[in-house]
Design a protein that fits this description.
Blueprint: H1 3-49, E1 53-59, E2 65-74, E3 79-80, E4 87-88, H2 94-106, H3 117-120, H4 137-142, H5 156-162, H6 170-174, H7 194-208, H8 212-221, E5 230-231, E6 244-245, E7 255-256, E8 258-259, E9 262-263, E10 276-278, H9 280-291, H10 298-304, E11 308-309, E12 317-318, E13 323-326, E14 332-340, E15 343-350, E16 355-361, H11 366-369, H12 373-391
Helix pairs in contact: 1-12, 2-7, 2-8
């Protein structure tokens, strides 16, 4: 190659390096600016509404994370909230169990439209379930079984208060709906209830010979590196924010949910109705992971996102362990919210924007939040969208 050609290519390479460096610097500056805007927004919401604290994470299209926090994690010790603080994620945990269920479905252990009688029809208590003979596995996953919520029935709350360390068995929980009338004919309505997933978990453990927590760990927690996520089966956790329960909570515990490093009661009973401690970062990671779940086929992923009309908001749908909610500026987001005494969580993946978000509050007092947790996610998503548009 002649010397002038070598010189030309050298100059071209230097120009490309300079351009690349400039673009990288601009991208870093934009992300720094976005983080400042998100922090300012979260701080302003906390100061205006006076909720104790919150954590928030967004995963950008290039995989980079922005994680922030506001307020306090413990009012007694005046400990500031940090992005790596963890909280009970409530019903968001259903997504891990739904994913595990779909792996078993892929393995041929059950079909979505199988009636549950096929698997537990020999249980002596089976016929005492509302709609027993007509419920399918799909109906448990999308809450169309007609089964009602268990924890406000009978003496459940009284027993929880009297013995906060009691270890609850699935059938013991299911017994609260025995011999009760169904909310509606199976498959003919929608009624959200943890009881659906408690029954689902019981069936899946029976047909697989594995525990639901082991399956969630194998198929979700390990492959997606959810290092801050663990089963909520005990009363103390590391990096755990104190939750503050609403005085009007149906549960017989109010105020701070953690005293002297220990929860007021064991969260073990929640099991497959939720059942995890997690972080906003892990929630965001898994929201994207669940939508694109690698362990199953595209047909099964499509089944998860085929929603039925839900009663959680206007035009809201519910798939198989997945909330499908309109955004107002793109099409739909895919994820799940969560509530547990003292804590509120939410996570969503926005496929049109290829961003995922997670948020957690260490209060369950909606009078302080003034809006749904999903509305907070949409506020933050608009800031990210504006930055994306600006960067084009």
């Amino acid at each position: 190659m002649k010397s002038y050609m070598k010189s030309y290519y050298l100059r071209l390479l230097l120009v490309l390096i300079c351009i690349s460096g400039t673009v990288t610097a601009q991208t870093k500056a934009q992300k720094a600016q976005l983080k400042q805007q998100l922090q300012a927004k979260l701080d302003s919401l906390q100061q205006a509404n006076k909720f104790p604290g919150a954590t928030f994470t967004v995963i950008l299209p290039d995989g980079d994370k922005i994680a922030i926090a506001t307020g306090i994690a413990d009012s007694t010790g005046l400990i500031k909230m940090s992005p790596d603080h963890r909280m009970l994620s409530g019903s968001n945990g259903k997504t891990l169990f739904a994913a595990s269920a779909m792996v078993l479905h892929e393995q041929g252990l059950f079909k979505l439209d199988d009636k549950i009688e096929k698997y537990i029809g020999d249980e002596e208590w089976f016929t005492r379930l509302p709609n027993a003979q007509s419920i399918t596995m799909r109906m448990l996953l999308n809450h169309t079984s007609g089964i009602e919520e268990y924890y406000e029935l009978g003496d459940f709350m009284q027993r929880l208060k009297q013995n906060p360390t009691h270890t609850w068995k699935p059938v013991e929980i299911l017994s609260y709906i025995f011999d009760r009338k169904p909310l509606f004919e199976a498959g003919k309505g929608w009624g959200y209830a943890d009881t659906n997933f408690i029954l689902l978990g019981y069936i899946l453990e029976k047909i697989s010979g594995k525990t639901m927590y082991d399956m969630a760990n194998t198929h979700v927690i390990k492959p997606y590196k959810l290092s801050a996520t663990e089963p909520s089966v005990k009363r103390n956790y590391k990096r755990f924010a104190v939750g503050y329960s609403n005085p009007t909570s149906p549960f017989p515990f109010h105020g701070p949910m953690v005293k002297n490093g220990e929860m007021a009661f064991s969260p073990q009973f929640e099991w497959t109705g939720g059942g995890f401690v997690s972080s906003a970062s892990d929630l965001a990671t898994w929201a994207k992971g669940f939508y694109n779940f690698k362990a199953i086929t595209s047909e099964s992923r499509e089944a998860i996102t085929q929603g039925v009309p839900a009663k959680t908001g206007r035009d809201h749908l519910y798939g198989l362990g997945m909330q499908i909610r309109p955004t107002g500026f793109t099409k739909y987001s895919y994820g799940h919210s969560g509530w547990f005494p003292g804590y509120i969580s939410d996570a969503a993946y926005f496929p049109d924007m290829n961003i995922a978000m997670g948020i957690q509050f260490n209060t369950d007092n909606f009078r302080l939040l003034k809006r749904s947790s999903y509305a907070y996610l949409l506020d933050m998503a608009k800031l990210v969208t504006a930055m994306q548009e600006k960067g084009k």
